[in-house]
Design a protein that fits this description.
The complex is a heterodimer of chains A (185) and B (218).
Chain A lengths: L2 H15 L2 H21 L4 H17 L11 H16 L22 H9 L2 H8 L3 H11 L5 H8 L3 H20 L6
Helix pairs in contact in A: 1-2, 2-3, 2-4, 3-4, 6-9, 7-9, 8-9
Chain B lengths: L9 H9 L4 H13 L1 H20 L7 H13 L22 H5 L8 E4 L2 E10 L2 E8 L4 E7 L3 E7 L2 E3 L2 E3 L4 E4 L5 E5 L5 E7 L3 E3 L2 H9 L3
Antiparallel strand pairs in B: 1-2, 2-3, 3-10, 4-9, 4-11, 5-8, 5-10, 6-7, 6-9
The chains are: A mainly alpha (185), B alpha+beta (218).
Amino acid sequence: MSENEQLVAFMDAIASARDADAFDELYRRFAPRVTAYLLKRHADRAVADDITQEVMLTVWKRAASFEPERASVATWIFTIARNRYIDRIRREKRPELDPDDPALVGNERSPESVLDVRRGSARVEDALAALPAEQAELIRMAYVDGKSHSEIALERELPLGTVKSRFRLALDKLRTQMDKKERVP
Amino acid sequence: MTAPRHHPPEALLVDYASGAAPEAIALLVATHLALCPRCRDDVDLLERIGGALLEEIPALPMAQAALLDAKDQAARARPHRLEPRRPVPDDLLMFPEPLRAYLAPKGEVKWTLAMPGFRYCELDVQYGGVPVRVSSLAGGFSVPRHTHEGLELNLVLHGGFTDRGDDYLRGDVAVGDATVTHHLDIHRGESCVLLAVNEHKLVPTTLAGRILTRLLPM
């Protein structure tokens, strides 16, 4: 069972049985990381702790709406933390795609991509580890520090075009790595 | 509906996924996503990067009290009840969420008539101090030649226009900035409805354009 599949089992236990031990497991694994993530975005520790509790409580309350085919557990928790940060610290609304909107256009996911999501982040992590340092750094500045392309260009004293192409290269590499079919043993 | 051929720049998709995007940009990107399965796949991948990075952040030491407090709150919390969906009136299906909530919070759009052939609705969100708006332009209308002081993003919701030889239809995103001087030819036969996110006011480059923009809130 992959790490994500284990986490999905915890989510299921929470959703179907309000399983406190399963929540315990998720809390220990993610709460300290959500706090660290929020601190990198300049929240002070007390605020970060507060928001972390809100995030973990949301995980508990909304467990039934988590869909394993759509995202890994880590990705889902990341999006909750990201949105809470925007709401509580930036004090802005977070416009989001509504997957159940009747006006939505397009197909359901392909079966391959469903399998891929369930396997979780391992391939993404490997792919990230394989990036050249300067590209990995940009990715971290965007996601962990929450910096836009323009802010990164300013901070690193790089032309915006350079930031864009480094991102392009990094994302192309990540896509290629993640698209690789697993070798059949 | 055919799939969109003009998408938001990758930088904006990354900013949307990472959370760095300002509200107006996130609104335009998310609305485009509702119409574009390809970009949804892209953003899924971009969000997965966020998930992977969250997992690898070094964990901060956490007080045992925090876990106990969380469990306590969880035990007392009611599970989230999904609100029953209100049906969407036919005339609002043109506007996917999240735009629909901004545009018609009470179930209908309040248009302001700027001049014959051009009406708009300002949304409760700004970009660079300029309110984001949805515009409806009559078929055949020609938006005067102009350039921009900052970023200009237009998402087509209905009808279409031609810009420097390229056609933009429902779901397409047109990007303009200070390097671009152009005019927009609205296709004849149906009105063109656009979500417009402009960093600054448009800069008209012809006399007719300057007169028009003085008369209109452009």
